[in-house]
Amino acid sequence: MKTSDFDYHLPEELIAQRPLEQRNESRMMIVRRDEGTIEHARFADFPDLVEKDDLLVMNDTRVVPARFFSNDETREILRVDIVGPRRWKCLVRPGKRFKVGRTVDIGTSIGTVIEICEEGGERIIEFDVEPDEDVHGHLALPPYIARPDDSTDTERYQTVFAKKAGAIAAPTAGLHFSDEMLSTLPHSFVTLHVGIGTFRPVSEEDMTKHHMHSEHYELEASTVKAIGAAKRTIAIGTTVVRVLESCAGGSGESVLVAGKGETDIFIYPPYQFKVVDALLTNFHLPKSTLLMLVAALAGKNLMMEAYAKAVEERYRFFSYGDCMVII
């Protein structure tokens, strides 16, 4: 398969710019793999699909305000990693104003560019005092949301179960859940801190040559035990899939191995899933690694048919959009 096999036409007006008033108001497409069928429902109906002894696995990462602007608002940095005391690895804009030795002032903090990374062009910036993210930080909304972040995003670009700080982007499948719905469903957690690589397109036509980004994960023994006792494992979001399938290195009765580390797993057809039985996910960008992942679970032809129907039926796309469950 080629990267272009995962392309589709998306009218710009279908890209959700803001969340719905209530978290569980979203529409939900149901894709049944065995029957090869596609149905239309509401996310409020999701609990009806959860059977006895099923387990939902959710990503409890918390989005941090990692986007900063210089005091004169002419320069922008996005912290993608903390690489040392007062040292950040950052995407910057405009790049020409972030040459080695240049400084950027954020509040009372002054950062100096000490290195330009060869791969990706990120800058290593060292601060005299780290900027206060609670005062100067902004949520790094995805580039397809054409507006600045505001007070609504502070709550809604965060799952109700967000706990462990470290993500740049939200695990968006989890955004649909309210506390009330969650309290009625059996669930456990993993952690994967979503990075900026989530939004990077696949530039190679031969998708096997794509260099996948790396993200930090944690899988606790309690979640491994809960999955082992479950009839079906329902991943809430592609980030959960990446954790579970990355940790599927065991044998015998225990396929999963608890632990923490970095994963750069790239899942695309044909891939044999070892842990995940079903998936709730939002709709993903054309030619993206995440679209390839869901196609690996549902089948490429059925998934591209589902996306065509989602456009036809005017579903809302991407982070603040509607969702799909693959069962």
Describe how the helices and strands are arranged.
Blueprint: E1 27-32, E2 37-42, E3 54-59, E4 61-63, E5 67-69, E6 76-84, E7 87-93, E8 103-106, E9 109-116, E10 123-127, H1 133-136, H2 151-156, E11 164-167, H3 179-182, E12 187-192, E13 215-219, H4 221-229, E14 232-236, H5 238-246, E15 259-263, E16 278-282, H6 289-298, H7 300-312, E17 323-326
Parallel strand pairs: 1-17, 3-12, 3-14, 4-11, 14-16
Antiparallel strand pairs: 1-2, 5-6, 6-7, 7-10, 8-9, 9-10, 12-13, 13-15, 16-17
Helix pairs in contact: 6-7
What can you see in these coordinates?
The chain is of the alpha/beta class. It folds into two domains: 3-63 and 142-326, QueA-like (3-Layer(aba) Sandwich); 67-136, Thrombin, subunit H. Helices cover 17% and strands 28% of the residues. It has helices at 133-136, 151-156, 179-182, 221-229, 238-246, 289-298, 300-312, and strands at 27-32, 37-42, 54-59, 61-63, 67-69, 76-84, 87-93, 103-106, 109-116, 123-127, 164-167, 187-192, 215-219, 232-236, 259-263, 278-282, 323-326. It has a nine-stranded mixed sheet, with helices on one face. It has a six-stranded antiparallel sheet with strand order 5-6-7-10-9-8, with no helix packed on it. A two-stranded parallel ribbon has the order 4-11. It is globular. The relative contact order is 0.21.
